[in-house]
Design goal:
Blueprint: E1 8-10, E2 36-44, H1 50-58, E3 76-82, E4 85-91, H2 101-112, E5 119-125, H3 133-143, E6 148-153, H4 160-171, E7 176-181, H5 190-200, E8 212-217, H6 218-234, E9 242-251, E10 257-265, H7 271-275, H8 280-297, E11 301-309, H9 317-322
Parallel strand pairs: 2-4, 2-5, 5-6, 6-7, 10-11
Antiparallel strand pairs: 1-8, 3-4, 9-10
Helix pairs in contact: 6-8
């Protein structure tokens, strides 16, 4: 696992940042200013559409998306700067009943994000509300005395006649200040939500440069891109117990980037699944990941992938430190 620094993502203009320490939200300055800035935490059950909403608001893919539940494992911050207002949107892992150490760390990261938030969004999948996860999240928010903005997502997949009764039932819980109905996929209603949040941000200096899109190092973002392709190409063939870690990052004289990463699986018999016949599968994963990396970074990428077996990777603190997760979270 490398300790080399890589730049946080900017609008095609990176700068250096240390990968060895986990990302943190910056402290608010007490100085008076004409600008506004703040943080918005995005909570919800797995697959509610949190990452899709973040990516649509930022206008760039910051957080990976796949049909697999619990795709987002760490706190991902996307930065939107418009006019004199800057908002850090904190995408969080889906909240569910944790069983393993990694589950506990992910759910802890989601709840911990509330500490820095000026506003909290609860994203609810309007097309699949009948699960108990959202009810459990609402109960915990009520216990923590949090005021929340309700965002009913995926309205493009729901009959309009179902939306108002669903919104009314959720608002009866008493924790919501406002309600928005959106489709993060199509963008329906997202602009209204964004304008509402911009008006809620307090006077403050900006926390990030105007062209910065995320505070995560590019090395972590590109590792997440490969993990997304791993899930998309293998779907149900590969269990959840796989991850991608950065090994090295080298910028060549011509501006292209050599990226080396390891796909880590928990069992030896998963390795040939990732490789595929004559290496065909890992080649496809690499090609698709490399294309997305080049779109993200604006540079030619040379991607080299290795597949390693580590049955205990979920019990090793270094993996948690790398992705800013709490190894001892309960």
């Amino acid at each position: 696992m490398t300790k080399k620094s890589t730049p946080p993502l900017k609008k095609k203009s990176p700068q250096s940042e240390d990968l060895s320490s986990p990302p943190s939200v910056k402290k608010r300055s007490s100085k008076t200013t004409a600008t506004q800035a703040g943080f918005v935490a995005i909570l919800g059950a797995p697959n509610a559409g949190k990452s899709t909403l973040l990516n649509h608001i930022i206008g760039q893919k910051i957080s990976i998306v796949s049909p697999k539940a619990q795709t987002t494992r760490m706190r991902v911050l996307g930065v939107m700067t418009e006019d004199q207002i800057q908002i850090g949107f904190i995408d969080t892992p889906g909240i569910f009943a944790p069983k393993r150490r990694l589950d506990h760390a992910m759910v802890h990261a989601a709840w911990h994000s509330l500490q820095d938030a000026d506003s909290i969004l609860l994203i609810v999948d309007a097309s699949a509300y009948k699960d108990n996860k959202t009810g459990d999240i609402i109960g915990e928010l009520r216990r923590r005395h949090k005021r929340v903005v309700l965002v009913l997502n995926k309205i493009d997949a729901v009959a309009p006649t179902r939306l108002l009764p669903l919104a009314a039932a959720l608002n009866d819980t008493g924790i919501f200040d406002d309600t928005f109905m959106v489709s993060a996929l199509t963008g329906d209603g997202v602009e209204d939500l964004k304008n509402y949040l911009k008006a809620k941000m307090p006077p403050s200096p900006w926390f990030f440069d105007q062209d910065q899109l995320s505070d995560l190092p590019s090395q972590l973002l590109t590792a997440e891109i490969t993990r997304e392709q791993l899930y998309r190409q293998l779907q149900q063939e590969l269990p959840y117990a796989a991850t991608v870690v950065p090994d090295s990052w080298e910028v060549k004289k011509d501006g292209s980037i050599i990226i080396r990463q390891s796909i880590v699986v928990s069992r030896l018999n998963y390795r040939p699944i990732v490789l595929g016949k004559a290496g065909a599968r890992i080649k496809t994963i690499g090609q698709k990941a490399r294309f997305e990396m080049e779109q993200l970074l604006g540079q030619k990428v040379h991607l080299f992938l290795d597949v390693k077996v580590d049955e205990k990777w979920q019990e090793r603190p270094e993996f948690y430190r790398l992705f800013g997760l709490d190894f001892v979270a309960k």
